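Appendix B, Record 12. Input sequence as logged:
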Amino acid sequence: MTDQPTTTLDSVDIQGLLELLPHRYPFLMIDKIVEIDGDDSGIGIKNVTFNEPQFQGHFPDKPVFPGVLLIEAMAQTAGAMCVLKTKKAGGAGKPSVVYFMTVDKVKFRKPVVPGDTVEFHVAKLKQRANMWWFRGEAKVAGKIVAEGEVSAMLVS
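Logged structural output:
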């Protein structure tokens, strides 16, 4: 037996994401978020399918999920976690907008293709007032395919 407190991790399904984020198809880049620890860390999930609109032009003969959309999905994962944390802390409703502020130290390591399930592991670096900074790693089958740092501002 241990006297250490246990942490209950949250999760958000697609319905919850639609309530937390303003994004809609085709620009909602995540399907759910699992293992949410407040605004400290979480894992967003994206199931990449061939019928997504970006594959019509990127690239028709060899479909590759655009790297910039991997970073957007990282930011959406972090943004949804911040909105959820604000909502749970008794904030006056959800913010009307989550602004993507910065992208730093981004590296793309391996292409993501239809059939892949991408996990966006994000961890808070710091928070000041209505701004958050996160470090993220996109992984497919446990291997890092992209990584970087993002920041966002929540505006009511």
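Residues 114 and 126 are 34 Å apart (CA to CA).
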